[in-house]
Amino acid sequence: MRLKSNFPYLNADSLEAFSLLGCPLYIYSFETQRICWANRPAMGFWDTTSEEELLNRLLTPYSDSTRIRLDDYREAFGRGEIRHESWTFYPRGRATAAMCRCSGVSLDGHDQAMLVEIEARLDTELPFADLRSLEALRHTRLMISLFTEEGSLLTQNPAATRTFGHLAGSAGNESDCFRAMFADPDAIVSLLAEGREQSGIKTTAVMALPDAPIHSLDISYVSDPVTARRSILVTQEDISPLIGMSRQLAASEYALDAVLNLNLAPSLVLSVGECRVVKANHSAQQLLGEAIRGDDGCEAVFETPDDFARLKGMILASGTGALPTRLRVQDGRHLWFHIVGARIRYERDDAVVLLMTDVDDVYRSTADLEAALSSERRISDIQRRFLAIASHEFRTPLAIIDSAAQRLERCADEKTPEQIRSRASRIRGSIQSLLHLLDSTIERVRLDQIELGYRPEPACLAQAVDHVVQSFRERDAETIFEIEGGELPVIAFDRPLIERVLSNIITNAIKYSDAPARIRIDLRALEQTVQIEVRDHGIGIPESERDRVFEAYARASNVGPVEGSGLGLAIVNQIIDLHGGSVAIVDTQGEGTTIRITLPRL
């Protein structure tokens, strides 16, 4: 026996009687979401001649508004209500509007169904645009309702029905449904008053719904097209998720600010679009100063802008990034930092947070260790080369000395004084060759070691020149020196190395000049450089050989029997090159050689 419910049961006799009626009748099953019975006029309405085809025809998927409307009907039928409304149907894809009487029923296999009686097709003269607007009104997710000035509900779209149907009941309810929507009804009095004065308002309010959602409302006054009376049109949207996200974002930003402020490491937050610093903790402000507040933002503190671009590219591409780089700090120094960054949201904008760790001491210690290791390697290499040279080059003169000494020892009683003097002369010659070779080897070692001892400091160049000249005057009183030129500016140079340069040049000038040698030294201060010219009146250097004599072991072709290692000017060239300067042999009027040294000013 079937229990009585608000979905009355239709037996076979009832369905047979319905089939004889001339108006279209069909039954829609809420369980199967299909038509489960139709009379012949309904089959004509749905444009089919086959009952089987109609019963198997898919009506889904539904739009959200259609699904909401059907759910509302199902609940209304459960309460014993009947709905008398217009529907737009789409038989064979053609839009057909009709006025329908809908009620809840049940039949075998379908406990909850809807009997639809199509009372009349609606032949409207509305323009297509208005028809489409009505359809859009039904399908929009916005909640749209129309109330009387007293607050009674006149109509609402499916979205509003889904949310407030339990408050409003059916259309025409005389209760104040408008006020019933709000958690604070008293606030509505002032809202309505404000709306009357301004013809409408936009506001937000907490609704009288579970979880107290917050809605954005657009309230305006319009005329009811049926009664021409003034009515209240309410368009609303649930913005609770947006407000919740905004609050979460604000809370996370507050937490981030707190973490950054407590962090001892310098930390920055940059906007992605403008690369502008939007947040700097106390450590970053103390370290970087005003530079981070300028238009250039964080780029201004990076020693190399390409490093910032590379770090930013890594973070934007993968969400995180890390890079060791040098930063310009507030006191003007450039220090090494290891920077780690991540992409975040800050103040509702894309941003990047950078955390900086000072690793300058580590990098400088590493650089010092590498420099010391490189120096040790070079010294070791120099020592190996020196031993190789000594082993190879010293062997021949030592062998000659040893051979001559052995002969003298064996035949001392048989040799005449003249023969002994000849042997002794050969030994002395070999010793002189050995000493010359030793001097050359030592000079070569010094040439290799020049870079190892390079230590430039600001000093007066003229004092270094005077010191060298004075030392030569004390050793060789016959040499005549002339020094011309005004005061020279203070420049950065390695004084021992520059004095060695002058000593080598003056030594050559004396060696290749007839005694007494005359040497003129001119000092000049130019806009970007300072110059020292040393001129002698010796044998000179052939013009074609002027560049070659600055190479190691190179000597001019006109030196004759004067001995030399060929390394003096090579050492000069290497030392001047270390200082970023230049050395050259310039044209000289008359006999002799003029060597010009050019050094940069500070």
Number of strands: 22
- What is the class of the largest domain in the CATH system? Alpha Beta
**Biggest sheet architecture:** 5 strands, antiparallel
What's the number of domains?
A: 5
Poorly predicted runs are: none
The CATH superfamily of the largest domain bears the name Histidine kinase-like ATPase, C-terminal domain
How much of the residues is beta strand, in percent?
A: 25-35%
In the CATH hierarchy, the third-tier topology of the largest domain is known as Heat Shock Protein 90
Task: Provide the structure class.
Answer: alpha+beta
Major β-sheet strand ordering: 2-1-5-4-3
- CATH architecture title of the largest domain: 2-Layer Sandwich
The coarse overall form would be rod-shaped
Description:
With 602 residues, the protein is of the alpha+beta class. It is built from 17 helices and 22 strands. A hairpin with a 6-residue loop joins strand 9 and strand 10. The longest helix is centred in the middle third of the chain and has 34 residues, at 360-393. It is rod-shaped and about 165 Å long. The model has no long low-confidence stretch (mean pLDDT 80).
Compact overview of the structure:
41% of the residues lie in helices and 26% in strands.
Q: How are the SSEs placed, and which strands pair?
A:
Blueprint: H1 12-19, E1 25-29, E2 34-38, H2 40-45, H3 51-55, H4 64-78, E3 83-89, E4 96-107, E5 110-121, H5 128-139, E6 143-148, E7 153-156, H6 158-168, H7 177-180, H8 186-198, E8 200-206, E9 214-223, E10 230-238, H9 240-262, E11 267-271, E12 277-280, H10 282-288, H11 305-318, E13 320-328, E14 334-346, E15 349-358, H12 360-393, H13 395-411, H14 417-449, E16 457-460, H15 461-475, E17 480-484, E18 490-493, H16 495-511, E19 518-525, E20 529-535, H17 568-578, E21 582-586, E22 594-600
Helix pairs in contact: 4-6, 12-14, 13-14, 15-16, 16-17
